[in-house]
Amino acid sequence: MSIVPRLLEFNKKFVEEKRYVDYMTDKFPDKKIAILTCMDTRLFELLPKALNLRNGDAKFIKNAGAILTQPFGSAMRSILVAVYELGAKEVLVIGHHECGMTNLDTKGMVGKFVEHGIDPLVIETLENAGIKMDRFLRGFTCPEEGVMHSVKMIRNHPLFPKDIPVHGFVIHPETGHLETIVFDYQEEPKALTE
Predict the structure, then answer these.
(1) 124 and 82 both lie in a single domain
(2) What class of enzyme is it (predicted)?
(3) Helix, strand, or coil here: 78?
(4) Phi, psi of 13 (to 5 degrees)
(5) Are residues 92 and 37 in the same domain?
(6) Pair (43, 129) in one structural domain
(7) What's the structural domain count of the chain?
(8) Taking Cα atoms as reference points, which of 151, 148, 176, 173 lies closest to residue 164?
(9) pLDDT band at residue 192, thresholds of 50, 70 and 90?
(10) Is the separation of the CB atoms in 94 and 47 below 8 Å?
(11) Of residues 189 and 46, which shows the higher confidence score?
């Protein structure tokens, strides 16, 4: 049975009781940051709380592994919109330990496509058209590698401004402990030099 009817019933009461008032903000991130992170369910509430972020403080872009696979894909577009249109002044890439994208079994996943009814000819056609499954379903050997891959892709993007710092971190999905992988200031922040 689908959970959707229960979600819709809750939503109706939520709106009727005006519980949304506690979350009202505008579209501009108050703390002027955009965060590329993983879609892992453990990070949904933990990550903002571990960074003392409230609703409206940051733009969150989530995908599997916080990994950018295409320089002109939707995640990179979201980062560019956050910077150019919504006022983000820094980008944080936050991966996490115990990520499902670590050593992702591409062949096993393709096998699951077939188990769920995807015709193997479709996969073969995609491969022949240049959509290589091992690249499309790219994982990494450790979260630090994934974070640095995304940081480098953002920094080197031809449309990304050079004066916007891109930081990289790995968070522990149980404790919220954040490890710095790269702290990217082209020049020292004023708070540290004064």
Answers:
(1) no
(2) lyase
(3) helix
(4) -65, -40
(5) yes
(6) no
(7) 2
(8) 151
(9) very low
(10) yes
(11) 46
pLDDT of 185: 60
90-96 and 178-182 as β-strands: parallel, antiparallel, unpaired?
unpaired
Q: Going by C-beta distance under 8 Å and a sequence separation of 6 or more, which residues neighbour residue 127?
A: 133
Q: What is the pLDDT of residues 44-59, one digit of tens each?
A: 999 999 999 999 999 9
| Dihedral angle sign, alpha carbons of residues 81, 86, 90, 92 | negative
Structural domain harbouring 171:
25-98+143-193
Compute the distance between CA of residue 135 and CA of residue 127 in angstroms, rounded to an integer: 10
Q: What does the alpha-carbon distance between residue 186 and residue 145 come to, in Å, rounded to a whole number?
A: 22
- Indicate whether 9 belongs to any domain: no
Q: Is residue 20 part of a domain?
A: no
Q: Is the pTM of this model over 0.85?
A: yes
Instruction: Give the Å distances, CA to CA, from 115 to 108, 119, 135, 182.
Output: 10, 9, 21, 41
Closest residue by Cα to residue 113 from 133, 89, 140:
133
Give residue-wise pLDDT tens across range 98-125: 999 999 999 999 999 999 999 999 999 9
Same domain, 115 and 132: yes
Q: How crowded is residue 57: how many other Cβ atoms within 10 Å of its Cβ?
A: 17
